[in-house]
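Lecture 7 notes: from sequence to structure.

We start with a single chain of 387 residues. Read the sequence below before looking at the structure.
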Amino acid sequence: MTPVHPTSRRQRPERSAAMRPVALAFFLLPALLLGSPGADASSFRSGGVDYVSLEDCAARLGMRLERSIPPTSVMLKDGAQPVARFADRSRETDIKGLRVFFGDPVLEHRGTFYLSRTDFDARLLPRLRPELCASPPRRPHVVAVDPGHGGLDHGTENRSLGTMEKTYTLDVALRLKKLLEAAGYAVVMTRETDVDVPKQIRTEIANQASADLFVSIHFNSLYPNTKTTGVEVLSFPPRSQRSTNSWSPGEKDDSEAREAPVNDFNAWNSVLASALHRRLLDSLHTGDRGEKFEHLGVLRMLKCPGVLVESAFLSSDAEAARLATPAYRDQIAAAILGGIQDYSDIVVRLRAQPGAAPAGTPALVPAPGPSAGAPQRSQPTRPGSVP
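Now the structure, written as tokens:
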């Protein structure tokens, strides 16, 4: 029996931005009619989701909104610099050149654009003003690296080249381990040989090692589509939000009413995902499949920020051929290292700031003045030296 790829629920192309609003209209119109901003136009509730106005979000970020043409979208700008575009009834945006999917659609209501409060707190704010989030996690020292699949679980395969996902995930993970250790990090591997490790055991390995972050390495597939290429980064959805592909036709709402342990790090999952996403795109010069949500068992019980990266499509002969070269796998490992270091730099900078926001500080707070310039590259600390 062919093993099932753990992300097989994502094995279909995203619907185009043009089609998505049409389909969502049928589901959202009743909710829009029920929701009402009342006297306070800065927020309202629709379909059980709390929304805040993008004008208010922009003010908290120290930015501004500009109405676009056509008027079904708005542009968030930092001075004259475009930052992100938001379209009515769309869950997709581009944040500083990175494709990002929200957990709820943006809504336009009575001339005002709204973003769900959860998406502001867990998606937008961490990418643009992480200093306004709750207190940052520990300065990274221990990195958990998870090579997907193994043993009888081959993962996806390239049929024409005869290559298996499990082989490449382990190869890239071992290359990454060497790079991380050379940079001063301690590394815990969930597997170092061709064995199948259950997802919950992978999580336990990271938690027992007190890992400061977790990166699961996978490769994608869209058979019988052999043309699609690109990078995809996945994190666990916040409570009450759906997986990205559960919005596709025929899929059920898979939102969960209870928080998972990894939801304690929603904002920092986004910071980590964004750092890895940008490094992989900049290094590999491939397509951007976006940052998405999925209820992944390997992430659910983590006690640290964690994401899953899909750096290439094995279903693409062209991308699979590149992946077959050691140089390309070195490139992927180096890009992941760079993303981890970028994430570490952000955490170090924020932990060094006097008066850093304590845990539980609301995200929608007045924006402070401009942040200082980027710091020098930080070095990982040893246990016991975390401030």
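The first helix runs from residue 19 to 34. Keep this in mind for problem set 3.
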